[in-house]
Amino acid sequence: MPEQDILPTTEPACKKKGAPIITVEHASKTFPNGVAALQDVNVTVCKSEVVVIIGPSGSGKSTLLRCLNGLEEIDSGHITIDDIRLNGNKKNRDIIRQEVGMVFQSFNLFPHLTVLDNVNLAQKLVRKRDDKEATDTSMDLLNKVGLGDRAASYPSQLSGGQQQRVAIARALAMHPKVMLFDEATSALDPEMIGEVLEVMRALAKDGMTMVLVTHEMGFAREVGDRIIFMEHGQVIESATAEAFFENPGEERTRAFLSQIL
Amino acid sequence: MPEQDILPTTEPACKKKGAPIITVEHASKTFPNGVAALQDVNVTVCKSEVVVIIGPSGSGKSTLLRCLNGLEEIDSGHITIDDIRLNGNKKNRDIIRQEVGMVFQSFNLFPHLTVLDNVNLAQKLVRKRDDKEATDTSMDLLNKVGLGDRAASYPSQLSGGQQQRVAIARALAMHPKVMLFDEATSALDPEMIGEVLEVMRALAKDGMTMVLVTHEMGFAREVGDRIIFMEHGQVIESATAEAFFENPGEERTRAFLSQIL
Amino acid sequence: MLHTKKPRITPLDIGIILVIAAALAAFGWRVDTQLDYEWKWTALGQYFLLHDPDQGWIPGLLTQGLLTTIKLSLWTMLFATIIGVVMGLARTSRSLFNRLIGQAYVGLVRNIPPLVLIFIFYFFISDQIFTAMGIDTMVRNAPPWVQEFLAITAAPVNQFTGFLSALVTLAIYEGAYITEHVRAGVQAVSVQQYEAAYALGLSPWHRMRHVIFPQAMTHIMPPLTGQFISTIKDSAIVSVISIQELTFQGMELMAATYMTFEIWIVITILYLILTVSCSVLSRYAERWFRRHEV
Amino acid sequence: GKLGRQLTEESTLTTILKRGTLRVGMDTFVPWAMKDKTGKFIGFEIDVARRLAEDMGVDIEFVPTSWDGIIPALLAGKFDLLIGGMGIRADRAVKVNFSIPYYSTGMSIVANSKKIPGATKLEDFNKEDIVISARKGTTAAKAAKRFMPNAKLRLFNKEPQAVQELLNGRAHAFISMAPLPAQEAIKHKDKLYLPMTGNFTNEPNGIAMRKGDVDMLNFVNSWIRATKAEGWILDRQKYWFTTLDWQSQVQ
Amino acid sequence: MPASSPAIFRPLQRHEQILDIVKLLLLGAGVFWLLMLGEEHLNYQWQWYLVPRYIFTWKHGVFTPGPLLEGLFVTFQITGLSLVLSMLFGLTAAIFGLSQSYVARLVSRCYVELIRNTPLLIQILFIYFVIAPVFDIGAFTSAVLALSLFEGAYASEIFRGGIESIHKGQWEAAYSLGLSTTDTYRKIILPQAIKRILPPLTGVLVSLVKDSSLASTIAVYELTQQGQLVIADTFLTFEIWFLIAIMYLAVTISLSWAAAALERKMNSEN
Ligand SMILES: Nc1ncnc2c1ncn2[C@@H]1O[C@H](COP(=O)(O)OP(=O)(O)OP(=O)(O)O)[C@@H](O)[C@H]1O
Ligand SMILES: Nc1ncnc2c1ncn2[C@@H]1O[C@H](COP(=O)(O)OP(=O)(O)OP(=O)(O)O)[C@@H](O)[C@H]1O
Ligand SMILES: [Mg+2]
Ligand SMILES: [Mg+2]
Questions:
Q1: What is the predicted ipTM?
Q2: pTM of the predicted model as reported, rounded to 2 decimal places
Q3: CATH code at A20-258
Q4: Where is the ABC transporter domain (chains A, B) (predicted)?
Q5: How far are the Cα atoms of D116, E163, E200, E206 from residue E196, in angstroms, in the given order?
Q6: Neighboring chain C residues of A71 at a CB cutoff of 8 Å
Q7: Could you report the per-residue pLDDT of E92-109, keeping only the tens digit for each?
């Protein structure tokens, strides 16, 4: 468990919600091409909390998210998820990947598998569930996202919004402790965005811990418990949604919001 | 010279402007796949007139334009440009192609040639100008479109708006009697559109005969002497810009405008 | 595969190193115990450069073979490119006649083993054509400076027709592959480029010459240089019709000296030197053709 | 008469004299024909061909040709005469004309002492588990088939490959025209031995040329008779086949 | 009119097509006539009637394959075995080349470059005369080994291209679900890559059939070797060479057709 006193003052001490489940301490990452995508980032996410990361393009939002489930490795600092350190140890990384679900902007469904198989696959291979158990879980989730009747379809036969909902179901089927969403709606038409946001809203209500990157300020405000504003690989501001939008602490944040809203 | 009385009533008799330079009479075209892209189209364009063609997607606007410089052939009807018939006769077609300049939506610059060579090429090969003469003409035009200093660049080193302006200079270098623009700005960013429209505006002022397809109603209204509204391969309405936007004659036109504006 | 980590030693590295080490050890042990072979590396020098009391230093057998291989490859590539461009354009032309000819050519040549092609060409087709054209007499009666020139650029008079047969066979064989590269390259140029050229009033020839072909070249260059490397390799096969190129000279040498292993190894290295330097050169050529891309 | 003149006119003999060069087809075959260090051809057949050209008063030119294509190459006119240790055989004579034999030789066999020690007669090799190597398209291959029909035959494009096969212990024996087997046995005393001294076949070798050319045939036959009588051919045979003096030219 | 030709070309009219086909037939006739002319000059005695017995004999209702047919069968054997092996080599080299292990990438690179930069003829002879005696490998095995190493290098580039063409997001999605690298290859990447890999791989198969003719140089009794032996026995040089060419053509062209059909089927499935 990370020591609370090393966290910067902008980070809450998880009073309202549960204990911290994600802690990022002094995380830095520089890409081989010299871009410093993360610079001394400190973030704490509490259980059942919904954290929204916003910021201009290239500010390191995706990189932070990708570091959280080990798709990228940080150069220095520490990331701890559910008391497990992501420290280059392969075993730890594999456990964390199972605990953390990720939904990508471009869906990344497996095009050669049916919707059901997309959701079943990792359950069988990683969680070692048998076919019946996996299918039960999958159908349950697909029904929840409103796609029970499309289980036998292939991804290419679905609309973007439907594909994104399958991607969410696929991640949920692993019963992750944390869900990460990277601009999960920005590849969608306006009317399809609605469907996906609906699912995410329901998840938030159910108490799922979520970290999401979005450009939808309206949605951020609605579901976000806390908003983190990033720029140039640094966390500029971290505040409750209300405080953030009503009364941003930083000059830069204000400038950004005035542009967007 | 076409007889005036065979033209439909919606076509003007070129009173204000010069004599008719383009006449399209009963032109029809059906693609091998059965799509009737043009159905009995009649259009007259007078010298120095700027005609804007608008209409929903797939209505045959591009096809009409492409027929005007022989990129496609009509199945029946007649097209006469500057007193020359486009009747499948190769010699006529070659003359007409030199008289008619075309600017494409996707620029279609030659990527392996510098900006200057792009503008020079056809002058030297078709108009048989020597290098000095061609370069003088080219530099003159490039300066006019504000790209005199980029003559030695390759197209890939230019922004979209700059590329489109080179394409215009390239077409103008042949001293065409008529310029055709097929959605010349729709592949561009908003700020780049401005640059290109500026050049087209200047051309219109100089008295160049132009036929353009655009979705920019504001621009259509500003530079268009006459607006032609097409749908399903047919000309639905043809009227002065003022009359067209203020008081469209047809129900269908009104519906279209209400959607767009 | 995602490269998420900095390079570090993985179990796979260790496994492979072990396997390679084991294989080498086994090979060494077997060579030592099983194979009765006397290595004579030092004797190889004279086959590269030889001191002759009368003529001074002269190229040895292998050097001669290497030079022939280079000359043959260069000529082959020149003619194969001409054939390939003509046939490639035929394959992309509007005329069905041209396309059918291109198709028949490519289909026929690419589906017969080169070994078989070479025999058929050598004994049957090229021989008839060359005899009919009287090339042999022509070369023999040519003035000395022409013969000298041919000897330097191609082959000495007495081997000229053989060289020409090999050249024609190889050019036709490689030409079929270049045809396909050219076709793909031309077809990779977008239709819009044709339309732009057309709208400017360029004639079909000018369109091809100034707009389409230069762009197609960017696409054609990489496979074309690859084909050049193949040509060097494929030229080995004409050794079966006794063209005195590198492989042939090597085999002759083995016949005389029985230094089988040394000579195979040296020949392999010589081919490697040729092809690798070729691919280095080709990289520069490709870059030159791509200079308009930023 | 007229016809006779035409025939003479069209004879290869006339062509050679007009051209001033005799073109001779052969294939590398130690010590019949091979390259020395400088790339010049040397060997028994080479000497014969050189002498023939000299006597005709023309230049000589060698056209090395792969053995399995050598008869078609002759027919196709790639060279005028085939002087390459070709055994006179009826089936070959269907396609080409042979001169009278200018020398005779025969097949002999050399065996690997580890693989099959102590063999003394051909029957020892006529077994199913015996592998015999030889060169493709030669009379050696024919002889192996005739005398050892039960043995397995492995045929290569060139002799060295067939010999290497024997040295590598993958063939029990190697058959070729004498004296190659004997010379190999001397070179690799520790590994190879001669199961029997002398040859087990006797083959007359002739010079081959295209059919229908009486003048040429006549000329070559006369030349052979004359040179043989001189003793020159025998002398050359001795030098190339019984001594190893020529080795220094090669290595 | 193939779809690949620029749209600017007007499709051919029916009569133009017929005219072109007639022109082609005329050309074919012309070439044939030239060949006949050359043949006359050659003074070669054609004996096609002797040829059939070398393909097969049919006596008293008993079918006996001749040497050429037997050779063709061996060619098939070499091709089939080499195909399986070369897929194995190719896939291994491709996965090595894409792996994170430095040594694996180096090995894969060296293998592919070495093989692609030296003549196959040299490789076959080298393996048979240098490597094979050391490990006591036979001629047939050597041929199969050389051919599969050779085609494997080309196959590996095809595999690599196919695998790399799979969008990076597929790897990321699989990893973020906790799948291992092996599972990701097995269940996600290869099933998708195979569709892009299969068509160019059929090219490898055609090459294998053709290149197997080089096995004749190390005394493997496949089609070319059998042909050469028949020629050595009978001097039916031209007849046999033409026949062999036709036999190879028949095999390779039917393979190409099958490949094209396969490709069409795959495209229509998507
Ligand atoms: N694989 C990579 N290699 C090199 N640089 C990278 C890589 N991935 C991202 N970057 C760089 O790192 C910086 C941060 O990228 P990141 O994708 O995290 O931004 P972002 O905040 O998600 O932006 P966006 O809102 O556009 O998605 C950018 O400057 C980007 O160019
Ligand atoms: N080469 C072609 N072959 C077959 N059909 C075509 C072809 N080109 C155009 N069409 C069809 O002809 C109709 C008219 O097309 P056209 O491109 O002229 O429309 P448009 O008015 O320019 O539309 P947009 O505003 O989308 O550019 C469409 O239905 C189109 O699908
Ligand atoms: Mg991002
Ligand atoms: Mg259009």
A1: 0.73
A2: 0.77
A3: 3.40.50.300
A4: 22-257
A5: 55, 9, 8, 18
A6: 2, 4
A7: 999 899 888 888 899 999
